[in-house]
Amino acid sequence: MDQIHIRALEALQPFIHLANSNSATSPRFITNLITNATSSPNTYVFAELLETPAIQALRAPDTPDEYKGYLTLLEIFAWGTWQDYQATPSLPRLTAPQTLKLQLLSLLTLSTTLKPLTYASLMTALSITQPSDLETLVTKAIYSSLITARLSPATSPPSVNVTAVAPLRDVDPRALGGMVSVLTQWETRCRSVIGEIEAEIARIRSESARRREEEYGRNVVFEKALAGWGSEGGDGARRAAGWQGKESGGGPGGPGGVGLGGGNKREFSADDFDDDDDDGYWEHGVEGDGQGLGSRMDIDDGAGSLRLGLGARHPKRVLGKKS
Q: Model-level pTM?
C-alpha cells in the first residue's frame, strides 16, 4: 500500500473510533464528526468512515432534513468532485478548509480523467478565477504528495503536466456495475488472445516436428547414398589399381604378357650363333660391302608384332650371304 494512503488511513482512525463510540447517537454529533473529518488537513480517504453504523444512521427517515445532507457531503468527499458538490442542492455550506480539501481531491480525479489538463479547463472545473490561484492549488497538491506534476504556464495553452497521482479516491458503489462490465470484456479479450497464442504455439511445434522429421529422412537417404558410393568407389579403385599393375609389370603389354604394339627390341649377339654352322649369313656384313655392322645388332620386331611364347618368330632381315 502507498505511504500516502497509509498516512491518510491513520489520520482517519480517530474519527472512526468516535463514530463507533457509545456517544455517537445524536444526528448533531455525527454531523459535527463529518465536518471535523473533512476539514482535517491530513484526511483524504473516507470510505471506512462512511461504512460505520453511526454515519449510515443518517439515512433513517426520521433524521431531520438539516442533517440529511451531511451524508451526501461525505460521499462527495469520498469519490465526488467540486462539480458534484455544486450540482447537488441542499448541501451544507463548506468552510475554507473543506473547500481547499474538496478542490485538492477534485484535482486528483481531474488529473486522471481530463485530457489535456489545461489551465482553462481546471479553472472552470474548480471554480477558480485567477491562474495564480490555480498554480497555488497545484503547488499545494505537489508538496502534499498528492500528485507529481509540473506547471507549464508559458506553453500555448498553459497546462499542468501530471505524471503520477496518489491512490486516494474511493470508488463510487454505483460505478461498480460498469467496472465489472469493463473487466469482464477485458477478461474475454484476454482469453481470446491467450487462445490464439496457444494455437500459434501448437502450430509452431507441429511445424517444427515436421521439419525435424523431413530433415531426418533426408539425412538417412544421404547416408545411404554416401555408403553405396563409398563401396562402389572402393571396387573401382581396386580394379583401376590392378589394371595399372598389369600395364607396368605382369599384365598385358608387360614383360611377361602379350605385347600389343610397339617399339620393343631384342638384342642379339653374333657370338650367340655358331660360326661353323653354315646358316647362310655373313658375320661382318654383305659380301662386297665395305662397311662392317659390328658384332652385335638389334632386331626390331616391328609395330604390331605379337610374341606369344609359342616358338613363332618374326622373319629376320637378311644382312648378308656367304659366297
A: 0.60
- Pairing label, strands 296-300, 147-152: unpaired
Q: Which amino acid is at 306?
A: L
Q: What is the mean pLDDT of the chain?
A: 79
In the block, which residue shows the cell 662392317? 292
Q: For the chain, which residues make up each domain, given as ranges?
A: 3-170, 173-207, 252-323
**What does the pLDDT look like over 195-219, one tens digit per residue?**
999 999 999 999 999 999 999 999 9
Amino acid at 106: S
300: nearest Cα among 265, 270, 267: 265
Asked whether the beta carbons of 75 and 173 are under 8 A apart, the reply is: no
Gap between the Cα atoms of 69 and 27, Å rounded? 11
